[in-house]
Amino acid sequence: MTTVAAIFEKQSKDMFRNIGVLAMFVVFPIVAFALENLIQNPYMEGGVFVGQMAAMFIAMGLVMSVGTIIAEDRENNSLRFLIIAGVKPMSYILGIGSFLFLASAVTSAAFGFIGGLGLAGLARLMPVMLSGAIASILLGAIIGMIAKNQQAATGMAMPIGMALGMGPIAATFNETVDRVFSVFYTQQVGVFVSDPTMSLTRPLATIWINIAVLAVVFGVVYNKKGRAS
């Protein structure tokens, strides 16, 4: 736990120095609030824009943030030193991801309040949002490990994040897209935020299957790419 705490402390300091990453946790709730209040369509259910922006935050915001952070560690050779020192994949991702996870909790709560959820609704929302955050932290970490540098990480993370984030938006208007993207965690986040009264079983089950797959891939990539950094 000492290693995890040290990495957590480093990340918390780096976070407030990186305005671009910090902005990712603020801009999406602001856009959701603006769209919900500026666009009044009687044919659209309330909370649709909140769900869409929540999915975009989980996908694009987190994936790009984590990818950039880890690519920077590789560029600076700090990741290689950690691996040589015996830091395990779980310790590294816990240290990097735990601070981003806490920041995601604040942003997730903001989406809940924008969507007009009370405490009971927020208690149902948080497990889905934070499970999605875990999946995106892992995906961003994989991208950061694969990319050669920060620029390459951003170049990889942006289209992947956009695809995962735009999927739930397109699914709102197209049943085929809805069926295709239903296996991805961001779709489950978007659907649940739009309709927080639905059962938690399918969203959480789908998201945690995604997490299990991404965790295995991250462990393999960490041990392979980290030593070669």
Class inferred from helices and paired strands: mainly alpha
Instruction: Pick out the low-confidence regions.
Output: none
- Compute the number of strand runs: 0
Count of individual helical segments:
10
Q: Beta-strand level of the residues, as a percent range? A: under 5%
Q: Give the overall average pLDDT.
A: 81
Shape: globular
The SSE string, one letter per element, is HHHHHHHHHH
Q: Summarize the amount of helix as a percent range.
A: over 70%
Q: Report how far apart the termini are.
A: 25 Å
Give me the Rg, rounded. 17 Å
Number of domains: 1
The main β sheet shows up as:
none
List the defining traits of the structure above.
single chain; mainly alpha; 10 helices; globular
List the helices and strands and how they pair.
Elements: H1 2-17, H2 19-38, H3 48-75, H4 78-84, H5 89-114, H6 119-146, H7 150-171, H8 175-181, H9 185-194, H10 201-228
Helix pairs in contact: 1-5, 2-3, 2-5, 3-5, 3-6, 3-7, 3-9, 4-10, 5-6, 6-7, 6-9, 6-10, 7-8, 7-9, 9-10
Structure report:
With 229 residues, the chain is mainly alpha-helical. It has one domain. Helices cover 84% and strands 0% of the residues. The chain is built from ten helices and no strands. The chain starts with a helix and ends with a helix.
